[in-house]
Design brief:
By secondary structure, the protein is mostly helical. The protein contains six helices and six strands; from the N terminus they run ααβαααββαβββ. One of its GO terms (cellular component) is membrane.
């Protein structure tokens, strides 16, 4: 009201009126900025079930509880199953092996065809190994610093590579042979790969395992359709 009168030239002209108008101007400006910010937050999370019909977020009632849908049932978004995570880890390892052997072929023989090679056994080897490293990560993340964890992952990789290679060799099915390396052991492992394995362990934890654990299934959603609402905690999707 003060602002409108001032714009029309009919408002009071004394110092108190000017001070009040200036205060109202700054208050209106601040409220406008907060309104724009709240609209951005609302548009980012308006798919949730804790939003009211006017876009105002409602806290879940005690009867509903955190992580529950509007009907009182559990939210449909659930963590990936161990088999689903194993599959993603297996595909990651398979892809990395193909790309590594293609890059090796290019560096050694300058082969622009980039032929990458691997074995079907790599799916089981990588999927199972990374799934076990996932368990290590969950136990060690609050106990050991990152570099120590990566060192443990590297030692596990050597143990797993030797074990699986030894078993496969009994059936003449081992797809790798490090006999031509200087620091190999029985042709199944080699110290020359210590740095690549360490770097791979770092990438595996920071980008593969951590992000895979954040993925969620919407079990009630129809294929190709929109997902069901997710439960919120402080404006963020609950991930347990």
């Amino acid at each position: 009201m003060l602002t409108r009168e001032r714009e029309d030239g009919t408002g009071p002209q004394h110092c108190a009126g000017k001070g009040a108008g200036l205060g109202l101007f700054w208050t209106s400006s601040l409220m406008s900025d907060l309104g724009r910010a709240s609209k951005g937050v609302t548009s980012a999370v308006d798919f949730t079930s804790t939003q009211g019909p006017t876009g105002v977020r409602r806290e879940p009632s005690p009867a509903q509880g955190p992580g529950r849908g509007p009907g009182g049932g559990m939210a449909s978004a659930e963590p990936l199953t161990a088999l689903s995570r194993w599959y993603l880890y297996a595909i990651h390892g398979y892809f990395c092996e193909v790309m590594f052997t293609a890059a090796w072929e290019f560096v050694v023989n300058c082969n622009w065809k980039f032929p990458g090679v691997t074995s079907v056994w790599a799916l089981f080897i990588y999927g199972t190994s990374i799934l076990i490293v996932e368990k290590m990560y969950l136990r060690l993340r609050s106990r050991c610093p990152l570099l120590v964890r990566c060192l443990i992952y590297t030692l596990w990789t050597y143990l797993w590579e030797f074990t699986t290679g030894y078993v496969l060799r009994q059936f003449n099915a081992c797809p790798w042979d490090y006999s031509q390396f200087d620091f190999d052991f029985m042709g199944l492992i080699t110290l020359e790969y210590a740095v690549p394995w360490f770097c791979g362990a770092l990438i595996m934890e920071r980008f593969i395992i951590r992000n895979t654990l954040r993925l969620r299934f919407d079990q009630r959603a129809e294929p190709g359709g929109p997902g069901a609402p997710l439960a919120l905690a402080n404006g963020h999707v609950k991930t347990d």
